[in-house]
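Human: I hope this is not a bother. Would you mind checking the protein record under this note? Thank you for your patience.
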Amino acid sequence: MIKLKKTPSTKEEIDNILNPIVKKWFYSRFEAYSLPQLFGVMEIHSRNNVLVSAPTGATKTLTGFLSVLNELIDSSEKNILEDRVYCVYLSPLKALSEDIKVNLVEPLKEMEAIAGKNLNIRVAVRTGDTPSSERAKMLKTPPHILITTPENLAIMLSSSKFMEHLRNVEWCIVDEVHALAENKRGVHLSLSLERLNALSSHMTRVGLSATIAPLEDVAQYLAGYENGKPRPCKIVDVQFIKKMDLKVLSPVADLVDMEHSVMHHAMYTLMDKMIQEHKTTLIFTNTRSATERVVHHLKEKFPKNYAENIGAHHGSLSKTLRHSLEQRLREGKLKVVVCSTSLELGIDIGYIDLVVCLGSPKSVARTLQRIGRSGHRLHDTTKGRIIVLDRDDLVECAVLLKSAVDRKIDKIHIPANALDVLAQQIDGIAIADKIHINELFKLVKQSYCYKDLDKKDFMEVIDYLSGKYISLEDRHIYAKIWYDEATGMIGRRGKMGRVIYMTNIGTIPEETAVVVKVGEQAVGTIEEAFLEKLRPGDIFVLGGQVYQFKFSRGMVAQVSASANRPPTVPSWFSEMLPLSFDLALEIGRFRRLMSERFCLNKSKEEILLFINNFLYVDQNAANSIYEYFFEQFNYATIPSHSRIVVEHTHTEMGKYVVFHSLYGRRVNDCLSRAVAFAIARTEHRDVEIGINDNGFYIASQKPINVMKAFKLLKSTELRKIMNMAIDKTEILKRRFRHCAMRALMILRQYKGHTKRVGRQQVASQILINAVKRISPDFSILKEARREVLEDLMDIENTRLVLEGIEQKKIQLEEIHTSMPSPFAFNLVIQGYTDVMKIEDKIGFVRRMHKNILAKLSTKKGIDKEALREFDYHEEWNKIVKKAEEQKDEEKEKLKQQAWNLKMVPIFARQEIVELIDGKDEASERLVDAVHKYKKEIEKDWPEEVKKFVFEKVGI
């Protein structure tokens, strides 16, 4: 039974349960109990499962540990403290584990000083970085509080020696639940919690989470199920206890008719002003490249303000650099840190008094998690600013902010019935001990993620693991477990079983750069996540050049360089976070409210008053929103969550059918692929697809009946259509490799050797054909499809959209325009503008906008030239011509030679090209490698590249 705790405990109630030592320590550090403590401490003390949802800096961690420390000190005082693990603390980050150790060891020392004696309470961290000597110590003398990661918990649960120390765990604290529950690490953890529960049936589960919804689902995820019913769990919801100071800012009054240089300067001036007015500022961007760019521009524009007091933090940096930056931030040596997503979690980075988001964070929960890093102390105000440079972004962020203030948090997606994770965990269970198949199925069904698992799917995983498919042995895939059908017992198989499991455990896939080649010539690299998005015939930009994708093999993508069309997939596409479905609906509702007011002929003053009352925006922003909607309404019509506008338009490059379906990119990815598949089946023609959060387009140079194909889609048949639509795609090939690795079909580590990602992908592509021959629904292939459609895309909400159309709850309205409407601008031109410099892109949009205004009005100031039809083809040719004129032939030749260096790792080739393109200095890793292989370089490399690299590394 999941219950929301509505009334806090009293100060006296908590005082009464605390040991005098703990009480004296607490009041020496804090004036009073925080709200999370008043709600949570007694529940944990009473051994109730509890989920505490509160903002960063609201004392969640101390809430989780106060009762635990209290009971351990009590037991120590009474001399009944045993040599076993009492509490397991789980964190998704190794760095967070170290923070917690420090934050526990210090208070324990202070409590020992108060007690005047050694309390002998041991705290230890076990992660992948823990030395074997430390692990051996833990086996001999287990810690009372064990701090670890989900992967290491699974390893310990399969270690016969360590399992004994986990037999009577009293508490399990899961930190940062919001970061785990929405991915396969969380699925893996949910099964580990059930395995731990089987050893410690009376264990209390404590979940600590930042802003998240729906809390009931997350509480069920934490507590699991018993006999088909949710285990009891109390919810402590204090997500909004801190005061919030939130604003959307635009650096300029007009977001369209403004020179790029003016807008660029205004944005950095605004940023610098805010940074100087605050002690420490954290800036979030949405991509790693933007992170580096912001740091560079701040240093360049304001050299007196930024030197050693600014830093970039993202996943591509080395661990040493990240840790160094985090330490300087804690010590107050940094004025500003710019990061992508790497500082969203609650790692201790000291005090921050302002968070700035550049562009939309794409979900309410993520916005509150990011902005929650400011005002880290309990009674401080959370202060956040979102800077927008685009009208779509402005509307999105304004509605996002309203949803945040109104506490409308987007729903989390928790993956269900992941068969690859199930296979890995069953192998771990079999390694630990023999188990009856019915008992195993019952254990698995106790996990929230597997509560609806079908027995047939479960048995197919057992069949794979027990070696039923003999043909897989030809691909060196052997049985992991034995299964005796007569007795129903399952156990470990093979001498190497334990080693293989321990060295290949985990759910995070390895990814590497994909080399792009024209024939045998390498021209650059792209990320795997970008390759996933490509279909044969797609056009993309790499290193300023335009290429057409043909096919991929392993980690090589073959392209042709003869593309003379604008890109169909923008180069930044794979880096951008998708808009959440719930926030998309809120924006759609706002659009409908605006449309109603325009339809009722409300005056500009009345509509501006509505915008100011409804949203939290300043006058400039309100005016920009009004103008945007005014232009769309008068030129075309305003789409909303309950009205999909299908806009037929054309350019000289072909016909476009734009679906204004503001449901987020995950839904639009699914919907667009289904439409394209229907067209391919009915008209035997491949079409070009473009998608973003606000909609998608289908483009073709020849006439096609898109609406006929769209109307063939039925909500009940959607999964079948999508399974066929993704069958031979890059996305399925890549995801199958990830799933095969989680299911231990492809091993990263074997007999001391590591299989490179490229080799893994080649093995995966051979393997996918082998399993299709066994069954088109082979369990791990079935899981790869499920992951693509449910986790990566959003097939369930896509089905609901189609259902809404079928039930007439969502209208379909077709319109015809001579050029794309204002709401279609960003979608249709995203390919065109990908090859432009930012100032050219803004000029391009301004000319389109001017043309729209000319069509709407004959006001003075609009010249006759503006009335001329906008010629996309002409503009595209201008862009290509300009790029050709600006190309540096010597530089291009040098880059070509660098990409084609033999026996040189990808990272080194990539960095040499970045240095040729103007990167300031070489990394330590490259410098060390060049010095180490100096003789080979002198002998084998082309003279120009050799000379350039030696100069850069100082040889």
